[in-house]
Amino acid sequence: MSYVKPDQLIDQLVHSGVVKTNLTAKQMFLRGTLSGAILGAATTLALTAAAQTGLPIVGALVFPVGFCVILMLGLELVTGSFALIPLAVLEGRTTIAKAAKNFAVVIPAHIFGAGLYAVLYVGVITYLGTDTTDPMIQAIIHLAEHKVLPYEAVGAGGILVVVVKAMLCNWMVALGTIMFYTSTSAAGKILGMWLPVLTFFGLGLEHAVVNMFVIPAGMLLGAHISFGQWWGWNTGPVLIGNFLGAVLFTALPLYFSHRKTVNRAASEHDEDTQAAPELTGAHS
Length: 284
Prior knowledge:
Order of helices and strands: HHHHHHHHHHHHH
Low-confidence stretches: 272-284
Strand content: under 5%
Radius of gyration: 19 Å
Protein backbone atom coordinates (compact mmCIF):
# COMPACT_ATOMS: atom_id res chain seq x y z
CA MET A 1 0.00 0.00 0.00
CA SER A 2 1.20 3.53 -0.75
CA TYR A 3 -0.41 5.05 2.36
CA VAL A 4 2.01 5.95 5.17
CA LYS A 5 0.51 5.47 8.64
CA PRO A 6 0.67 8.35 11.15
CA ASP A 7 3.37 6.84 13.38
CA GLN A 8 5.61 6.25 10.36
CA LEU A 9 4.67 9.68 9.06
CA ILE A 10 6.08 11.40 12.16
CA ASP A 11 9.36 9.52 11.70
CA GLN A 12 9.63 10.81 8.15
CA LEU A 13 8.77 14.39 9.12
CA VAL A 14 11.40 14.48 11.85
CA HIS A 15 14.03 12.88 9.65
CA SER A 16 13.31 15.35 6.85
CA GLY A 17 13.79 18.22 9.31
CA VAL A 18 17.17 16.78 10.30
CA VAL A 19 18.25 16.41 6.68
CA LYS A 20 17.27 19.98 5.84
CA THR A 21 19.46 21.38 8.59
CA ASN A 22 22.44 19.25 7.47
CA LEU A 23 22.49 20.70 3.95
CA THR A 24 25.38 22.96 3.00
CA ALA A 25 24.70 26.68 2.66
CA LYS A 26 25.22 26.35 -1.09
CA GLN A 27 22.57 23.64 -1.33
CA MET A 28 20.16 25.65 0.79
CA PHE A 29 20.64 28.77 -1.32
CA LEU A 30 20.31 27.08 -4.70
CA ARG A 31 17.23 25.10 -3.67
CA GLY A 32 15.67 28.17 -2.09
CA THR A 33 16.35 30.26 -5.20
CA LEU A 34 14.68 27.71 -7.46
CA SER A 35 11.66 27.52 -5.14
CA GLY A 36 11.21 31.29 -5.13
CA ALA A 37 11.27 31.41 -8.92
CA ILE A 38 8.94 28.41 -9.29
CA LEU A 39 6.36 29.91 -6.94
CA GLY A 40 6.57 33.14 -8.93
CA ALA A 41 5.81 31.20 -12.10
CA ALA A 42 2.93 29.37 -10.41
CA THR A 43 1.50 32.67 -9.20
CA THR A 44 1.54 34.19 -12.68
CA LEU A 45 -0.07 31.03 -14.02
CA ALA A 46 -2.84 31.34 -11.42
CA LEU A 47 -3.38 35.05 -12.14
CA THR A 48 -3.47 34.37 -15.87
CA ALA A 49 -6.02 31.58 -15.44
CA ALA A 50 -8.20 33.79 -13.24
CA ALA A 51 -8.03 36.65 -15.75
CA GLN A 52 -8.79 34.45 -18.77
CA THR A 53 -11.79 32.76 -17.16
CA GLY A 54 -13.05 35.55 -14.92
CA LEU A 55 -13.15 32.96 -12.12
CA PRO A 56 -10.52 33.40 -9.36
CA ILE A 57 -11.17 29.85 -8.16
CA VAL A 58 -9.64 28.57 -11.41
CA GLY A 59 -6.42 30.30 -10.46
CA ALA A 60 -6.51 28.54 -7.10
CA LEU A 61 -7.05 25.20 -8.83
CA VAL A 62 -3.86 25.52 -10.91
CA PHE A 63 -1.57 27.30 -8.44
CA PRO A 64 -0.49 24.13 -6.55
CA VAL A 65 1.47 22.97 -9.60
CA GLY A 66 4.40 25.06 -8.37
CA PHE A 67 4.21 23.65 -4.87
CA CYS A 68 4.18 20.10 -6.25
CA VAL A 69 7.23 20.73 -8.43
CA ILE A 70 9.14 22.11 -5.44
CA LEU A 71 8.46 19.14 -3.17
CA MET A 72 8.84 16.47 -5.83
CA LEU A 73 12.30 17.86 -6.70
CA GLY A 74 13.37 18.02 -3.05
CA LEU A 75 13.88 21.80 -3.06
CA GLU A 76 13.76 24.13 -0.07
CA LEU A 77 10.57 26.03 0.80
CA VAL A 78 10.83 27.80 4.11
CA THR A 79 7.11 27.71 4.84
CA GLY A 80 7.20 23.92 4.69
CA SER A 81 10.41 23.79 6.71
CA PHE A 82 8.67 25.83 9.41
CA ALA A 83 6.71 22.64 10.16
CA LEU A 84 9.47 20.05 9.72
CA ILE A 85 12.59 21.56 11.28
CA PRO A 86 11.02 22.46 14.65
CA LEU A 87 10.05 18.79 15.09
CA ALA A 88 13.67 17.75 14.58
CA VAL A 89 14.71 20.35 17.17
CA LEU A 90 12.01 19.12 19.55
CA GLU A 91 13.42 15.60 19.43
CA GLY A 92 16.97 16.81 19.93
CA ARG A 93 18.08 15.49 16.54
CA THR A 94 19.23 18.87 15.28
CA THR A 95 20.07 22.18 16.93
CA ILE A 96 18.44 25.60 17.06
CA ALA A 97 21.59 27.03 15.48
CA LYS A 98 21.27 24.70 12.49
CA ALA A 99 17.58 25.50 12.19
CA ALA A 100 18.32 29.24 12.24
CA LYS A 101 21.00 28.76 9.57
CA ASN A 102 18.52 27.05 7.26
CA PHE A 103 15.97 29.84 7.63
CA ALA A 104 18.63 32.56 7.35
CA VAL A 105 19.95 31.17 4.06
CA VAL A 106 16.73 29.99 2.44
CA ILE A 107 14.67 33.17 3.00
CA PRO A 108 17.15 35.46 1.15
CA ALA A 109 17.38 32.78 -1.54
CA HIS A 110 13.60 32.93 -1.98
CA ILE A 111 13.81 36.72 -2.33
CA PHE A 112 16.54 36.38 -4.94
CA GLY A 113 14.72 33.70 -6.95
CA ALA A 114 11.30 35.33 -6.79
CA GLY A 115 12.80 38.75 -7.52
CA LEU A 116 14.73 37.43 -10.51
CA TYR A 117 11.58 35.87 -11.92
CA ALA A 118 9.71 39.12 -11.27
CA VAL A 119 12.27 41.14 -13.27
CA LEU A 120 12.16 38.69 -16.16
CA TYR A 121 8.37 38.41 -16.17
CA VAL A 122 7.83 42.17 -15.98
CA GLY A 123 10.26 42.62 -18.87
CA VAL A 124 8.26 40.15 -20.94
CA ILE A 125 4.74 41.49 -20.30
CA THR A 126 5.83 45.11 -20.82
CA TYR A 127 8.08 44.36 -23.81
CA LEU A 128 10.98 45.85 -21.86
CA GLY A 129 8.89 48.79 -20.66
CA THR A 130 7.49 49.79 -24.05
CA ASP A 131 3.95 48.37 -23.77
CA THR A 132 1.46 48.74 -20.90
CA THR A 133 -1.55 47.04 -22.50
CA ASP A 134 -1.15 43.53 -21.06
CA PRO A 135 -4.05 42.95 -18.62
CA MET A 136 -1.68 41.16 -16.25
CA ILE A 137 0.02 44.47 -15.48
CA GLN A 138 -2.99 45.96 -13.71
CA ALA A 139 -3.82 42.59 -12.11
CA ILE A 140 -0.38 42.40 -10.48
CA ILE A 141 -0.40 46.06 -9.42
CA HIS A 142 -3.83 45.66 -7.83
CA LEU A 143 -2.84 42.47 -6.02
CA ALA A 144 0.44 43.95 -4.76
CA GLU A 145 -1.28 47.07 -3.39
CA HIS A 146 -4.04 44.97 -1.84
CA LYS A 147 -1.40 43.01 0.08
CA VAL A 148 0.03 46.14 1.71
CA LEU A 149 -2.15 49.27 1.73
CA PRO A 150 -5.31 47.94 3.47
CA TYR A 151 -3.23 46.71 6.43
CA GLU A 152 -1.40 50.03 6.66
CA ALA A 153 -4.71 51.91 6.60
CA VAL A 154 -5.88 50.06 9.73
CA GLY A 155 -2.66 50.70 11.65
CA ALA A 156 -1.67 48.37 14.48
CA GLY A 157 -4.81 46.31 13.90
CA GLY A 158 -3.63 45.75 10.34
CA ILE A 159 -0.51 43.99 11.65
CA LEU A 160 -2.71 41.66 13.68
CA VAL A 161 -4.90 40.93 10.64
CA VAL A 162 -1.94 40.15 8.38
CA VAL A 163 -0.32 37.90 11.00
CA VAL A 164 -3.54 35.93 11.47
CA LYS A 165 -4.02 35.60 7.70
CA ALA A 166 -0.44 34.35 7.46
CA MET A 167 -1.05 31.83 10.25
CA LEU A 168 -4.15 30.51 8.49
CA CYS A 169 -2.23 30.36 5.22
CA ASN A 170 0.60 28.28 6.58
CA TRP A 171 -1.76 26.01 8.44
CA MET A 172 -2.80 24.89 4.96
CA VAL A 173 0.66 25.04 3.37
CA ALA A 174 2.24 23.06 6.22
CA LEU A 175 -0.55 20.51 5.86
CA GLY A 176 0.27 20.32 2.17
CA THR A 177 3.91 19.67 3.01
CA ILE A 178 3.00 16.96 5.50
CA MET A 179 0.52 15.36 3.10
CA PHE A 180 3.45 14.86 0.72
CA TYR A 181 4.79 12.30 3.19
CA THR A 182 1.52 10.38 3.57
CA SER A 183 2.04 8.47 0.32
CA THR A 184 4.92 6.63 -1.32
CA SER A 185 3.49 7.04 -4.84
CA ALA A 186 4.03 10.11 -7.01
CA ALA A 187 0.29 10.44 -7.74
CA GLY A 188 -0.58 10.14 -4.05
CA LYS A 189 1.94 12.80 -3.10
CA ILE A 190 0.66 15.23 -5.72
CA LEU A 191 -2.99 14.77 -4.77
CA GLY A 192 -2.19 15.07 -1.07
CA MET A 193 -0.28 18.31 -1.56
CA TRP A 194 -2.77 19.82 -3.98
CA LEU A 195 -5.83 20.05 -1.74
CA PRO A 196 -4.56 22.17 1.20
CA VAL A 197 -2.54 24.48 -1.07
CA LEU A 198 -5.58 25.07 -3.29
CA THR A 199 -7.47 26.05 -0.14
CA PHE A 200 -4.95 28.69 0.98
CA PHE A 201 -4.72 30.32 -2.44
CA GLY A 202 -8.46 30.29 -3.00
CA LEU A 203 -9.05 32.03 0.35
CA GLY A 204 -6.62 34.83 -0.49
CA LEU A 205 -4.40 34.26 2.55
CA GLU A 206 -0.85 35.55 3.01
CA HIS A 207 2.16 33.44 1.97
CA ALA A 208 5.55 35.09 2.40
CA VAL A 209 7.26 33.48 -0.60
CA VAL A 210 4.39 34.19 -3.00
CA ASN A 211 4.46 37.79 -1.83
CA MET A 212 8.22 37.95 -2.49
CA PHE A 213 7.22 37.78 -6.15
CA VAL A 214 3.89 39.63 -6.19
CA ILE A 215 4.90 42.78 -4.33
CA PRO A 216 8.27 43.43 -6.03
CA ALA A 217 6.65 42.74 -9.41
CA GLY A 218 3.91 45.22 -8.57
CA MET A 219 6.51 47.79 -7.50
CA LEU A 220 8.38 47.35 -10.78
CA LEU A 221 5.11 47.92 -12.64
CA GLY A 222 4.28 51.10 -10.73
CA ALA A 223 2.40 50.03 -7.60
CA HIS A 224 2.45 52.74 -4.93
CA ILE A 225 4.44 50.71 -2.41
CA SER A 226 7.83 51.46 -0.87
CA PHE A 227 10.40 48.94 0.30
CA GLY A 228 9.57 49.79 3.90
CA GLN A 229 5.84 49.28 3.33
CA TRP A 230 6.52 45.92 1.66
CA TRP A 231 8.45 44.59 4.63
CA GLY A 232 6.73 46.47 7.45
CA TRP A 233 3.14 45.80 6.45
CA ASN A 234 3.48 42.46 4.71
CA THR A 235 6.53 40.24 4.41
CA GLY A 236 7.97 40.84 7.89
CA PRO A 237 4.77 40.06 9.82
CA VAL A 238 3.78 37.41 7.26
CA LEU A 239 6.96 35.43 7.93
CA ILE A 240 6.16 35.53 11.64
CA GLY A 241 2.57 34.41 11.02
CA ASN A 242 3.65 31.67 8.62
CA PHE A 243 6.04 30.28 11.25
CA LEU A 244 3.43 30.39 14.02
CA GLY A 245 0.79 28.78 11.82
CA ALA A 246 3.05 25.91 10.80
CA VAL A 247 4.19 25.18 14.35
CA LEU A 248 1.02 25.83 16.38
CA PHE A 249 -1.69 24.70 13.97
CA THR A 250 0.02 21.83 12.18
CA ALA A 251 3.35 20.43 13.37
CA LEU A 252 2.84 20.28 17.13
CA PRO A 253 -0.81 19.10 17.14
CA LEU A 254 -0.02 16.27 14.70
CA TYR A 255 3.17 15.35 16.54
CA PHE A 256 1.56 15.09 19.97
CA SER A 257 -1.49 13.35 18.51
CA HIS A 258 0.53 10.48 17.04
CA ARG A 259 4.02 10.31 18.55
CA LYS A 260 4.27 7.36 20.90
CA THR A 261 8.01 6.92 21.35
CA VAL A 262 10.33 9.91 21.11
CA ASN A 263 13.56 9.14 19.30
CA ARG A 264 16.05 11.70 20.58
CA ALA A 265 19.14 9.79 19.48
CA ALA A 266 20.66 11.26 16.35
CA SER A 267 21.40 8.33 14.07
CA GLU A 268 24.33 8.03 11.67
CA HIS A 269 21.70 8.02 8.93
CA ASP A 270 20.53 11.47 10.02
CA GLU A 271 24.05 12.85 10.16
CA ASP A 272 25.25 11.47 6.86
CA THR A 273 22.19 11.75 4.64
CA GLN A 274 22.24 14.39 1.97
CA ALA A 275 18.88 15.65 0.74
CA ALA A 276 18.75 14.06 -2.68
CA PRO A 277 15.13 14.14 -3.92
CA GLU A 278 13.46 10.75 -3.61
CA LEU A 279 9.85 9.76 -4.04
CA THR A 280 9.81 8.23 -0.57
CA GLY A 281 9.67 11.80 0.73
CA ALA A 282 12.26 11.09 3.42
CA HIS A 283 14.81 13.42 1.91
CA SER A 284 12.69 16.14 0.36
